Please model this.
Amino acid sequence: MPLLRACFPKTSIRSESGATKSQPSKNVKKALTIDDISKIFYHQLPKDSTAEMCRDYWMFMYMANGINVKDMCLLKYSNVDGNTISFIRAKTARTKRIVEPIRIVLNDELKSIIAKWGNEPDPKKFIFPVLEDGQDLERQRNLIQQLTHLINDHMKAIAADLGIERSVTTYFARHSFATILQRSGANVSFISEAIGHSSIRTTQQYLAGFEDEAKMEALKALTAFKQQTD
Model:
């Protein structure tokens, strides 16, 4: 994938050790509405452009159980079994407790993104052409950080073009996956399992409140005793 390689020239790689890594505030909800997701999905972008690639990667993360950038980059074709991808999150891979793999159901949209931007299918290869075997951990970390920044920059621009008044980043893909499933009636336990949380409490922190319209509809139950007037 020449386009993707061009986004990560080796001469531009530099260590970011010592830099302060900002953490997202747990009090800030980072979920989009389904209408916002629809706008992003159908937004027309120049074919084969970096912007289109970043939008598609973001959509992949959203639809693939809210997978984060690092885990997406580490996926290999050996993780694919028919219509599912199974993987262990990098942050839990070295824990002593038993960790159940996360299973992603490959819908047509996910398959299309892999076909467009992925490597040629080979069990030894990473699905997406970001990392390569033989790279040390520092090199891989830098590449993952660069891709994250690239996606964030383009998603913020796309959101602005669409009139979405949010600073959309990769975190929004994960939070939106959980929140939209909740709004569709999915059980919190199912959502927690799908995104690989060790506790339901952690999942609840991801779940944003319902839209104002949904709240108003729910609050109507409080005055259901009122008689209807002609």
About this structure: The chain is about 45% helix and 5% strand. The longest strand covers residues 84-87. Residues 29 and 208 are 6 Å apart (CA to CA).
